[in-house]
Specification:
single chain, 372 residues, alpha+beta, 2 domains, 4-stranded antiparallel β-sheet, 12 helices, globular
């Protein structure tokens, strides 16, 4: 990671003061609070938490405030803070099937157990600016939240009952037990990469980058004919095994967005025709990110499923190596740092090449005149 270099300390200190001044803005207006950001800019907070790999709404809101709304800078701040935290264990895999969903929609079945749950969404709003939001708009009474609902059957489980979709995990039986998941933040990145590590990289990858790649797969660059089997948002319980106690202890609940994409698969010599899965799971409410992640996940499984790799979204090394916006930011923004020596060397080289070019041009001109 490229970081700022030392030099011009007085100028840097003044730049910090100017930044703080611009961050505060007009003093006649009240300062925005972290609590306001958490409650009223929740989707921005959710994105920062997801791409920083740290579920901490208050800290994510503080990062958004400190970064003046620059999402990638806020993600950078929170991820840097994350590196200072001690690790004392690993949680069990969350069980999204036990989620009490506040939103759950499917594009594959009109009538499914539990029905469609629209929840909080922009999907059915008109894309028109609302002037009422510019002032102190009247507060409407929100519908009561049903916290006593029942878990909803997953669409993939309905297909699995007829054996029409692949198993969720290949290693999910007594003969082939599931291996422990890796940790992308503690292990060096190596290719080819196991799917669990790929999903970790995609979960913290840049939303815009994944959205563009997911879009490319729908336009033929990594053909995967997708159906949104299910998208659900809700809280899940996080538990951790405590060896001294001999049972799992609840650490609390977090809100997540899960997407199961259902994709066509013609089968192979070893597998019958069936649907395959693309999977996305991210912190908070972030349907667009979860859907894009699921599309890219399925495309990256091309080799595993015996399909030709012909598009960027199917190239694991290309996708994973460029998905992280913190790394991308560091590499792009290091161009702002001094490169005086390098540039002088390039400048000298171009001058010498230009002088040689002019000598050749003059020699060719003399040769042509002599021939005439």
């Amino acid at each position: 990671m490229y970081v700022a270099v030392k030099g011009g300390e007085a100028a840097i200190a003044n730049a910090h003061k100017m930044l703080a001044d611009r961050r505060r803005g007009d003093r006649s207006l009240p300062s925005i609070t972290v609590e306001q950001i958490v409650e009223q800019l929740a989707l921005a907070v959710d994105r920062v938490m997801a791409e920083a790999s740290l579920y901490a709404p208050d800290l994510a809101a503080l990062a958004v405030k400190q970064a003046r709304g620059d999402m990638i800078e806020a993600i950078f701040l929170l991820r840097a803070y994350r590196t200072t935290l001690p690790r004392f264990g690993a949680s069990q895999p969350v069980e999204t099937g036990e989620m009490i969903a506040e939103r759950r929609v499917s594009a594959t079945y009109k009538d499914l157990p539990g029905g469609q749950v629209l929840g909080p969404t922009f999907d059915y709003t008109h894309r028109l600016l609302d002037p009422a939001l510019a002032g102190d708009e009247a507060v409407e009474t929100a519908p009561a939240r049903d916290s006593e609902g029942e878990p909803l059957t997953r669409v993939a489980d309905i297909l699995a009952q007829e054996d029409l979709i692949e198993r969720a995990f290949t290693g999910d039986s007594a003969e082939m037990p599931r291996e422990p998941s890796g940790d992308l933040t503690r292990e060096p990145m190596e290719f080819p990469m196991a799917r669990d590590l790929r999903l970790q990289a995609l979960a913290r990858g840049d939303e815009g980058f994944l959205l563009a790649l997911g879009y490319s797969t729908q336009r033929g660059y990594g053909r995967t004919h997708p159906f949104a089997g299910e998208i659900r948002i809700g809280e899940v319980e996080v538990e951790m095994d405590v060896p001294e106690l001999g049972f799992a202890v609840s650490l609390g609940r977090i809100r997540v967005t899960e997407c199961q994409m259902v994709n066509q698969f013609a089968g192979s010599a070893k597998l019958p025709p069936q649907f395959t899965r693309g999977y996305g799971l991210v912190f908070g409410q972030s349907e667009r990110k979860a859907m894009a992640m699921a599309l890219v996940d399925r495309s990256l499984r091309a080799g595993e499923l015996g399909e030709d790799r012909v598009a960027p979204a199917q190239d694991e090394e290309f996708v994973i190596s460029h998905a992280d916006n913190v790394q991308a930011t560091g590499f792009v923004e290091h161009l702002k740092l001094p490169h005086y020596v390098d540039f002088q060397a390039e400048l000298d080289l171009v001058r010498r090449m230009r002088a040689e070019f002019e000598v050749r041009q003059s020699r060719d001109h003399d040769t042509q005149e002599a021939a005439e």
